[in-house]
Design brief:
InterPro entries: P-loop_NTPase. It comes from Acaulospora morrowiae. This is 4589_t:CDS:1. The chain has 336 residues and is of the alpha/beta class. The protein has 2 domains: 228 residues, 3-Layer(aba) Sandwich (Rossmann fold); 60 residues. It is built from 15 helices and 9 strands. Strands 6-7-8-5-9 form a 5-stranded parallel β-sheet. A two-stranded antiparallel sheet has the order 1-2. It has a two-stranded antiparallel sheet with strand order 3-4. A hairpin with a 5-residue loop joins β1 and β2. The longest helix has 17 residues. The chain is elongated, with a radius of gyration of 22 Å. It starts with a helix and ends with a helix.
């Protein structure tokens, strides 16, 4: 049964890719490519944001289509503090390598792991790497492989449609001709994960809040499509352009049960509270917390943890009383 005839019957249509060439695609995929949902700001905005930046400099990052759950919600807005650790991780990912690079960012809640993920995803987007960024892994904790596949397709196509060539699009739908509508999502999502693994240029997968997938019965055991999110060996050493980042909470179930000893030592990066001088930069962005004396109290009560700083600012805002010195600040400390 000729593939072309089957595709016509299934409603495949012609789509003009970023390189100007046409490709036949399932109508469901074209609908995603033409949708405005989860579309990032222009790449040039990201490139401009990263010009001349250095470690311990705060920069304003554009919208990536998805964002960490607390991002841009507090007084910092879209400002991100770029730490030395962020730069070091990016330097490792962006360096040429003979092997794939896989890392698990681990640490207590609220220390900024999601900000590191957003920084890395933004940097890769600025560099035009093919990328799948999932800001909240709970989006994949769904009832069926088809739903999970749809999520992967939606986020990947939104992030990459301006750089995907006709040949690359043809490749990710190559096995979809003999599938029904629901199966298309799984088939194309599998090809998307393979395209990152088998890429001929640097390509990145980032899954934030990764530990959510392992809180009870591991979701990748129930949905086989997601097994690459459990088994880091899927991204074998020989796939030298593949870059993979998972973020989770320290000592979470994934690390305890699914990383063998050698993997844990080699692949896990510990993320702790910010260093005092880095935390100063965040405090300087706030009119009250930048006041000498108050600044020291803020560091002590938050332990230099960014999430705690957000809570502190919320309390200040709710208090709604003029604070101009350390004495005015004492009632706030009692609430914390």
């Amino acid at each position: 049964y000729p593939i072309k005839k089957r595709r016509i019957e299934q409603g495949w249509k012609s789509y003009t890719a970023s390189d100007g060439h046409s490709v036949e695609l399932p109508s469901e995929i074209i609908d995603m490519l033409e949708s405005d949902s989860f579309v990032p700001d222009k790449r040039i905005d990201f490139k401009n944001a990263f010009q001349n930046f250095s470690a311990r400099q705060s920069i304003i990052l554009p919208h990536l289509g998805q964002e960490p759950k607390h991002f841009a919600k507090s007084y910092q807005g879209r400002t991100v503090l770029v730490t030395k650790q962020m730069n070091d991780i990016w330097d490792k990912l962006s360096a040429d390598s003979d092997n794939s690079i896989k890392r698990v960012l681990s640490g207590p809640m609220g220390v900024g792991k999601s900000y590191i993920s957003y920084f890395l995803a933004s940097k890769a987007y600025a560099e035009e790497w093919p990328m799948l960024y999932i800001a909240d892994a709970s989006d994949l904790n769904v009832e069926s492989p088809e739903k999970a596949g749809e999520v992967i397709c939606r986020y990947f196509l939104a992030l990459n449609k301006d750089i995907l060539t006709a040949a690359e699009l043809e490749k990710i739908v190559q096995c979809a001709s003999d599938r029904n509508t629901q199966q298309i999502w799984v088939t194309v999502a599998e090809q998307i994960l393979d395209s990152i693994k088998l890429a001929r240029r640097k390509a990145l997968l980032i899954v934030d809040e990764h530990g959510i997938l392992f809180e009870k019965e591991p979701v990748p055991l129930r949905i086989h499509l997601l097994s690459p999110l459990m088994n880091l060996n899927f991204w074998g050493e020989k796939y030298k352009f593949a870059r993979v980042i998972f973020t989770g909470t320290a000592h979470a179930k994934y690390e305890r049960e699914y990383l063998k000893n050698g993997q844990h030592e080699f692949w896990v990066i510990y993320v702790g509270p910010l260093q005092s001088n880095s935390f100063d930069i965040l405090l300087q962005l706030h009119p009250i917390l930048s006041i000498q004396g108050i600044k020291e109290d803020a560091k002590r009560v938050t332990n230099c943890v960014p999430r705690e700083l957000i809570y502190l600012v919320d309390i200040i805002n709710q208090h709604n009383v003029a604070i101009t010195n350390v004495d005015d600040f004492q009632p706030i400390l009692k609430i914390m």
